[in-house]
Each structure stands twice: as structure tokens, then as C-alpha cells.
Sequence to fold (509 residues):
Amino acid sequence: MPSPVQQDPGQPRMRRSLGVKDGVAIAASSTAATTSIGIGMGSLAAYAGRQTPALLLLAFLPILGIALSYARLNRTEPNCGSGYTWVGRSIGPWPGFLTGWVVLIGNVIFMAYTGAVTGSVVLQFLNKLGLHSVWGLRLDPSSTGISTAVGLVALVVVTITAITGVQAATRMQMWLLIFEYTVLVLFCGYALYIGDQPFSLSWLNPFDIGSPQALAQGMVIAVFIYWGWDAAFSVNEETRNASDAARGGLIALVAMLGLFLVGALAFQRVMSTGELMHNGPQALTFLGSSLAPEPWASLPLAALMCSAFASLQSSVIPTARGALAMARDRTLGPVWQRVHPRYGSPAVGTLVIMALAALLAVLAVGIPKLNDMILTAVNSIGLTVALYYGLTALACAVRFRSSLRDGVVRALRDVVVPAASALTLFGLGAYLVWDYATMSDHFEASPDNGWFMLLLPALFILLGLTTAAWAKWVRRAPYFRTGRGTDADALTLPMDGDAGAPLPRPVES
Fold:
């Protein structure tokens, strides 16, 4: 079927040059296992206590259902807009737009706080080298302001590498992944062996979590920790075969499960729950110093820095491509679909995303403690991630509902599992919204204040609805009449070429 909107045939297009391993690199880097383990286990322990491994196992089940939904939809309609395109066609343009919108905003927020985390890790390195102040300014890794300033430099660096081509970026990410996972597995394996905290089977029992509120809050954070595997689907128009994106995302997701469980068990073998919560973003550094002398104790910190840089870069890549899909449907402005004539990447959109993340990071300096900033961001993004994952899984169930007549296996794969996963995430989100709304009687800019935790997701959705209204009634985007995104197959994409050579002029579809 011809697409409702065709990209300007005079514009350069993105190259089909990626394979399965590139998808794995992008998905794994975006999920950022080392960063999630290094800074997320303390947050999970605050809610789940010693049942953090059980929580990670429990959260994996709906996430696996979401991943299978992505893979099923991608086989039918490969599109770099992924959930935005699929939800718009299956459920309606308004929820479809919101799906794309919350991915865009969520990634910008993620980049803002991950930039600060990256800065904090760099400062920890400088502290280890004996540099604790510069010109009278204390280099405090727990300070949001100092960490953000250093993180802004990291944002600029990863943006430049993302613009110069996704294939070069994935090659660098693969080497970073090999290094960080080697360090992570070695240290966590050693921690499992020599840790002095006795192992208990209750660590794997989710029914031992203290309360429904703690379970729901922990589940949303765990969903956030898994978030990122779907980045592989954002480059399916640049893969030689669209199924490579699905394989890359699923391989990365299963690998993340193994790494998260090993990391959680290792941390609990070495640290008490109180120590995990106290160390927060420095938990991985504490683990290294507990297990080995210098300079070996600094290896986990080096792995964390590699992970932070890789996750920053891999967040820019899918965000810019999701915005490109929205722009070619005219739901966002044309600036987002400008593809660099030499590198074949959405360069202008990448720059805009970096600028927005930098601005948000500067505004977040008002939260003085880095740990509070991380907790605020994680909770806000977690709710929006649950929303768009749920909508995408529901889109799969709606689109393939005829599979209910085609046997048990197809009905389970195409309808039952996606619908159950969607309802699980919607239920978690609804429960937390109710809990946040009733837990406080006043407003305060603190991660302990329910009204504040609701404010950010509510603002994201309200701004998204306003932008959608502008696209529908002012920009008159055809997407809001049909719910169909631009068909990726209708666009002529050049095959592999010299990375430095200009792209050939495409043939009009």
C-alpha cells in the first residue's frame, strides 16, 4: 500500500548496512547492564530488600512478552518508528503519537541524568588519582552540579560519534561491551565465591517483598532497568534484514537477564541491604574496592564509565531515528528528518536531542544530590516506559486478534501473551499513580513526594497531547487521518557504500 507521506526524493536516505551483531550492540549498550547494576541495585534494594533478584526475575516475564510483541510486529511492518507506527495503525493515531512522544522524552531525560552519572564516574576516577579539587572547586562525585558539568562534555563527544554514522558507533560499542562485561562477570563471579553474606533461597521469592506498594514500585524500576533492548528496532531500516533487529533485541534482553541476576546476587553476597542503599551510584566502586587492591579495584569503575558512555551514545541513535519516523509523517517538524548527505544519519535531529538533554541536565542541577536526581528520573521514566511498552503489546494483540482462530500456539504468541503483558504494565502504572496521588498532602520537589513524582509524567503526557493537537489541526499531518506511518519499504534505501562517500540520489518510489 502506498504510504500517506513520502519523504522528499531529493533527500539522502539511511544505509542498509547493519547486521544482528550491530543490533545486539545497540540494544545491549542502550540497556547498559553495567550502569544499571552499578547504580540501580541500590534503588531496587530500597523497595525489594534482599528480594531484588526475585524482582528482576518477575519483571522479566512481562518484558519478554513485550519483546515478542515487538518481534511479531516488526516482521509485518519494519519501521524505525516501531511502537509509534504500530500503535498508530492498530489502536489509533493519538495513542500512537503518545507512544513515540514518550520514547522521545524518556530518552532525553535518560541522557540528561546519564550524562550526570558519566560525569560522576569520571570524578570518581579523578579522586582515585588523588585529584580532589581544582582551583578551589571540590570534585565531589555525589554533587549534581559538578557531575553535570563534566557530563555535558561527554554528551558532546557521543553526539559527534553518533552523527558520523551508526555503523562506526556500533563497532566502538561492541568493544566497550566486551571490556565491561568481562570485568563485570569476573568481579561478580568472584564476589559470589568469597562473599560473607549468607545466600538464602528467599532472595528468589517475590512473595517475601514487604508490601504491594513496594512490589509495584520495585517492578516499575525493574522495568526501567530492562528498558533499552527495543533500541535495536529503531535501526531496522538500516539492517540488511529486518528480522536481524528482532534477533538482536531478543539476544540482548536474555543476556541482560543473566547479567542482572548475577550482579544482584553478587552485590548481596558482599553488601548488606543498608550498604547497598547507602552506596547508591557508587555501589560498583564499593564492590571493586571490597574485592581487590588497586589498581585492580578500579576496573569496575572503568567498566562503569565505558557503560555510561556507550548508553549515552546508544540513546542518541534510536531517539533520533524515532523522531525521523515522526517527522516524515509530519507529526514533528521537518528538521527531524534531515539526513546527513555524507554519513547517512539524522544529524540535525541528533544535535537537537543533545541540546535538549543538556538543557534538562542543567535544570536538574536544582536537585542537589545525584542519588535523588537518579531516583526522580528513574521513577518518572519508569511510568512512561510502562505506558508505551503496554500500548505496543496491546497493538500486537489487536492487530493479530484473528490468530485466536488459528490454534493455541499462534493465539498465545500473537494475542494472549501480548495482552497479558500489556495489562500487567497498565495495572502497575495505575496502582502507582493512585499510590503517588494519595501518599502526600503537600507538594515538595523530592523523590519522597508523591505529587512531585506524578508531576513529571503528567507534564510529559500533557505536552505530548498539545504537540499532537498542533500536528493534527495546524500541521494537518495525514497520520491523524489514517493512523498509518510512512511505509519504510516504499522508500528506496542505498545499500552498503563507502562510509565517507556521498550517498547516491535515491529513486523516487
User: Anything to note?
Assistant: Strands lie at 133-134, 137-138. The longest strand covers residues 133-134. Residues 330 and 475 are 7 Å apart (CA to CA). The first helix runs from residue 20 to 31.
